[in-house]
Amino acid sequence: MSDVAAWTEGYDPGLSVDGRGEAVVLVPGMDGTGRLFYRQTGPLARSYRVATYALRNTARAMDQLVADLAQVVDLVDPVERRAIVVGESFGGALALSLALAHPGRVRALVILNSFPYFTPQTRLHLAMAGLRIMPWHTMGLVRRLTAFRLHSRHTHREERRRFMALTAGASRDGYIGRLRILTRYDVRARLGEIEAPTLFLAAEQDHLVPSVAQATFMAARVPGSVMRILAGHGHICLLAPDIDLERILREWRG
User: Containing domain of residue 62, as a range?
Assistant: First the structure.
């Protein structure tokens, strides 16, 4: 059995790669599907070799997800085995963990609406308990009822509908497993060890994560990092019409 076949046994990463140039790996958030980058992959692929993938729903430790992400980097850039890693929300925590565990895999780091430690932890435990007892078919209704708190206010209605469709297949076990992983995740004391050039992006109107406060905390501790506030945006901001990751990367990296 090949290394790739052994890695993917029992797990479909849904790896999608497009474009040419430096490798960019987009790391999904709590939904784990990797499908919510659809507005960003086309523009990025004009300048980069851009990859999206799905998180392993059976992972019970951050180390396992870090190993998966390292494999994705190797597949997207098999020569240099390095990538610009962009992590959103939970994916930002995973991207930070990769940068600490395998600094050689990370050419540059972009952390969007994320954190080095999730607080208050009681929210994680309440969320896990709620997901265990909630009839899963009602998850779509929950997403619709909470959309006004999560999306940027000027995100088009059609994009919100597409968000609902793309996340409809998200796994209950995956959500619970990732929430459990966050109860054991804390890299606050290690932020000074991050070597890669790092950009922290924080949505000004994020009602899920205190993104501006978290980005300020991290930027003060990661050497040479830069912070940028996304004015007027909510937590799920990559679907908004005025967010362009390719332009943000170009402006940051020069």
Answer: 3-253
Instruction: Give the C-alpha separation, 88 to 95, whole Å.
Output: 9
Cα 129 to Cα 117: distance, rounded to the nearest angstrom? 20
Residue 8 has a pLDDT of 76
CB 59 within 8 A of CB 209: no
Tens of pLDDT, residues 74-116: 999 999 999 999 999 999 999 999 999 999 999 999 999 999 9
- Residue 7 is predicted with a pLDDT of 72
pLDDT tens, 34-58?
999 999 999 999 999 999 999 999 9
CA–CA separation, 190 vs 168, rounded Å? Answer: 36
Count of structural domains, the chain: 1
HSE (CB half, 13 Å, CA atoms) of 50?
A: 20
CA 126 to chain centre: 22
List strands edge to edge, sheet with 106-112. 16-18, 49-52, 23-27, 83-88, 106-112, 198-203, 226-230
Alpha carbon distance 25, 244 (integer Å)? 15
Q: Specify the pairing of strand 23-27 against strand 49-52.
A: parallel
What is the domain-level CATH number for residue 95?
3.40.50.1820
